[in-house]
Amino acid sequence: MDFDLTEEQRLIIDTARDFAAREIAPKAAELDKTGRWPTEIVARMAELGFMGMCIPPEYGGGGLDPLSYALAMEEISAACASCGVIMSVNNSLFCDPVYKFGTEEQKKNVLTPVASGQKLGCFGLTEPMSGSDAQTMITTAEKTADGWVLNGAKNWITNGPHADYILVFAVTDRTGGKVRHTAFLVEKGTPGYTQNARDHKLGIHAAHSCTVFFENCKVPDSAIVGKVGEGFKVAMATLDGGRIGIASQALGIARAALDVSVQYSKERKSFGVPISQHQAIAFMLANMATELDAARLLTWRAASMKEKGVRHSPESAMAKLYASEMATRVAHKAIQVHGGYGYSTEFPVERHYRDARITEIYEGTSEIQRIVIAASVLA
Ligand code: CAA
């Protein structure tokens, strides 16, 4: 693995960091407070090519490598974790699988507007009674003479209230004691496909999620992504990439918490000196920086394996597991460095703490990452 970033990758960091500092960071507290969907930021992320970064230009994307995507995700998430996950779901959970498994027609008609950011995508795997054990989903798609009829509900659908398309997974076959799933593309406005009001959550307030419903929702055969009966593999392969995006989001949150802690520790005085001169504080900062770097290396390794096209399930799981738990630890310590002010909404660290927590849950809990890692350790 080459640790030197290319000129292009450095440019992506600079572009994303500059954009995030000018146009996202000043609004992050307001977005968190109001839970407003950041329409104008999503539009600017589209203009900058951040909504389909690894998709080839002929399908509306940036034609970049997964490490470039991870770098941009860290920058956007350092400014606002909500904006980070909006971007991550569109890139990793929608564009990637449609590009990898979709038909030419789907790539032209659906992927191109979503990768260029004119339209928005979301991913429907989780159900009210089926989260970690994703194969137990009960949403069905029944074959008819001219297509399929979907029935069921999917919840925690990030981007769901605003998405133009959903990539949804349904059971299509239960014969022979084996459950087989298939992936479908459904467009907003298709009769029988509805969304309810957005969820209310601990953090990432501006990244809206909701439950979506399929009631006798008819789709044509051309809505199938990948092969009939192989939808679960589409979902799992997609999450191998998605977990790199969430690991990068966690890096961004932790970096923001560390940066503001370093700055505060140099300004705040106690016992006659800046608190950074107390070893108790300096050691906290040292641990935070070390853990952040370790998580970044795991994330960059997973991204570079994805670029090489080799299976990277355990590497993505390690990156997501370590980065997400690290982000919670770092944000926790950031509050400690700030003392009482850290607990106040006047400072950003309590937001970082709330935002970090979800990274240990979505796209597979820490426990699911350990299952994936253990399977490779014990193989
Ligand atoms: N790539 C390709 N195929 C894969 C794969 C991968 N990474 N992982 C598994 N498969 C294949 C297996 O080879 C197997 O194929 P065969 O049937 O041909 O043998 C099949 O898929 C089933 O695999 P498992 O037996 O390992 O499946 P399992 O039922 O034991 O589940 C699991 C494995 C890891 C626990 C999985 O259910 C899982 O990842 N659960 C968590 C789900 C999750 O992450 N949900 C997140 C929702 S999205 C989200 O959160 C979005 C958001 O809001 C931001």
UniProtKB/TrEMBL annotation:
Domain Acyl-CoA dehydrogenase/oxidase N-terminal: 6-118
InterPro entries registered for this protein in UniProt: Acyl-CoA_DH_CS (IPR006089), Acyl-CoA_Oxase/DH_mid-dom (IPR006091), Acyl-CoA_Oxase/DH_mid-dom_sf (IPR046373), AcylCo_DH-like_C (IPR036250), AcylCo_DH/oxidase_C (IPR009075), AcylCoA_DH/ox_N (IPR013786), AcylCoA_DH/ox_N_sf (IPR037069), AcylCoA_DH/oxidase_NM_dom_sf (IPR009100)
Pfam families: Acyl-CoA_dh_1 (PF00441), Acyl-CoA_dh_M (PF02770), Acyl-CoA_dh_N (PF02771)
Cofactor: FAD
Domain Acyl-CoA oxidase/dehydrogenase middle intervals: 122-217
Domain of life: Bacteria
CDD domains reported for this sequence: SCAD_SBCAD
UniProt-listed PROSITE patterns: ACYL_COA_DH_2
Start and end residues of each Acyl-CoA dehydrogenase/oxidase C-terminal domain: 229-377
UniProt keyword Flavoprotein, yes or no: yes
Keyword presence, Nucleotide-binding: no
Keywords annotated in UniProt: FAD, Flavoprotein, Oxidoreductase
Family: Belongs to the acyl-CoA dehydrogenase family.
The protein, known as: Acyl-CoA dehydrogenase
